[in-house]
Amino acid sequence: MLKNSKILLLVMFGFLFVTCNQKDKSKEEKETILKGTMDIAVDETLVPIVEDQVAVFEGTYDAKITIKPKSEAEIINDLLNQKATVAFTARDLTKEEREVFNKKKIVPKVTPVAIDAIAFISNKGNNDTLIALKSIINFMQGKPEANIKGLVFDNPNSSTVRYLKTLAGVKDIPKEGVFSFKTNEEVIKFVSENKGMIGVVGVNWLSQPSPELKDFVAKINVLSVKGLKSDKFIAPTQNNIAEETYPLARDLYIINCQGYSGLGIGFASFVGGDIGQRIILKSGLLPIRVPGRKLNIRNEIIKEKE
């Protein structure tokens, strides 16, 4: 009887050991830097470029990344409250925000990955394709501008609103003449159908419009902007962003607060690496590191046989 009890205990112990090992193994295999599932909170103004990156990443590795478009304010709040652990944003964390993470013993890993720009758009019916940044600032300060009927933003809590409020030195947007929707798509559609309105969007929505958006983009003008210390009107092109002549360029970041070696690290490394930077270059934005090109140099020119 005692012998049978010992055998039973050994069998039970072995079963528990195998079960625990399987659970641990399953947990480890659930997510690595190149495998598993992950949500990423994405600034709504940057969705097109992130969609391109995710598509290639998923096609290369055994990973599934779900994009969660949100306003900038929502993203930062979600990170601070640990409702999101990885984000693609148009700004770095502030000193105060980093202190919040330090108190939670979390060290965010912030990876700069690209430079894009805020673009102003107007209806094709408007003959003028130029705008002075000073005029936009005046309008944000509540001063009337004859050539601006209204400003149209994607969201009152978006990165574009925050950027222009900072430039204008105001805490709140004007109560009149400023309109907001939920997405950049809605801004583009509204401006394409309403003369006199100036839309404020992320430039990658214009450089890579979706098939559904192409017809609306064809009905708008992308305005050239005169900076506060310039007499020239500059278009938001990749070349002008690279030469630092366009006045509304901004850095893009991937913020990883996972606290372990998960997909957040793998995805940030991918976007910051050669393939990811080439995707950014092709999209019309400026990669943080311009991918190199290999050239084969021959000492002799071999003539082809006639």
Automatic annotation (TrEMBL):
First and last residue of the signal peptide: none
Entry superkingdom: Bacteria
Pfam families given in the database record: PBP_like_2
Segments forming a coiled coil: none
Residue ranges of domain PBP in the record: 36-271
SUPFAM superfamilies tied to this protein: Periplasmic binding protein-like II (SSF53850)
InterPro entries in alphabetical order: PBP_domain, Phosphate_ABC_transporter
Keywords, in A-Z order: Signal
Protein name in UniProt: Substrate-binding domain-containing protein
Organism for this UniProt entry: Flavobacterium frigoritolerans
Taxon lineage: Bacteria, Pseudomonadati, Bacteroidota, Flavobacteriia, Flavobacteriales
